[in-house]
Write a structure and sequence with these properties.
The chain is α+β, with helices and mostly antiparallel strands. The protein is built from eight helices and eight strands. A hairpin with a 5-residue loop joins strand 2 and strand 3.
Length: 218
């Protein structure tokens, strides 16, 4: 992660539409996004669940200003025909972006837990450093959502029936699921005020990563 900004998106996909959704992600959407000025990279994750097809997408941005900048807004106000077909189908849609306050660790983990939090830690760096020191943890990121920049009305936003929001983001990236679950338990002991408002911690596996330096819109 190189940029100061982030954009995080959750959504559920009907299994009957799963093939179309995955083709849209891999053959059009992520490339379109990371070739937009200010976007640096995209990572797509799938939840380790049997009852629902849930996905999480994390975009790395140069800065939070990208969220309501002219390049990205132009994309949001002119969705492709494929996006127009996919967007209304997405359920439990949650979207938010802002400033990545702190990062700890090196590299990226393939197994992550991403938590939407109502109360950011008073000392985010101390919390990130404590979690990343746990065995099997590769990286920790803590971000603060910018409601104003995230809530700008657009054509694409209007295509979705409902859109959830969150105040803060805590991402723990691990080498394996066992290490991740141990870290989640330890983190809840370290910062109970942060985890008090968080529901069950979902586990996600990385299924796609795309960097703007290697992406092509062709």
């Amino acid at each position: 992660m190189r940029g100061d900004g982030f954009l995080a998106i959750w959504s559920d996909v009907d299994r009957n539409s799963l093939t179309d959704y995955r083709h849209w992600l891999t053959r059009e959407h992520t490339t379109e996004r990371v070739t937009t000025n200010g976007f640096l990279a995209s990572r797509v994750f799938r939840a380790n669940r049997l009852d629902v097809e849930r996905f999480f997408i994390l975009y790395e941005l140069e800065s939070p200003e990208v969220l309501d900048g002219p390049a990205y807004l132009a994309r949001l106000n002119s969705p492709t025909p494929w996006s127009q077909r996919i967007m209304p189908q997405l359920g439990n849609f949650v979207r938010g972006g802002g400033l990545m306050l702190v990062r700890a660790g090196r590299g990226e983990g393939c197994t992550i837990s991403v938590l939407r939090v109502e109360h950011l830690p008073e000392q985010p760096k101390s919390l990130a450093d404590a979690i990343v020191a746990i065995d099997g943890i590769a990286a920790v990121q803590i971000g603060a959502t910018d409601r104003a920049r995230t809530s700008v009305p657009t054509v694409e936003k209007g295509m979705r029936q409902q859109e959830g929001f969150f105040d803060g983001l805590l991402i723990i990236e691990a080498l394996d699921e066992q290490s991740l679950r141990k870290a989640l338990n330890k983190a809840a002991e370290i910062a109970p005020e942060v985890f008090r408002s968080v529901g069950e911690s979902e586990i996600y596996e990385n299924i796609l990563s795309l960097d703007a330096r290697t992406a092509s819109s062709e």
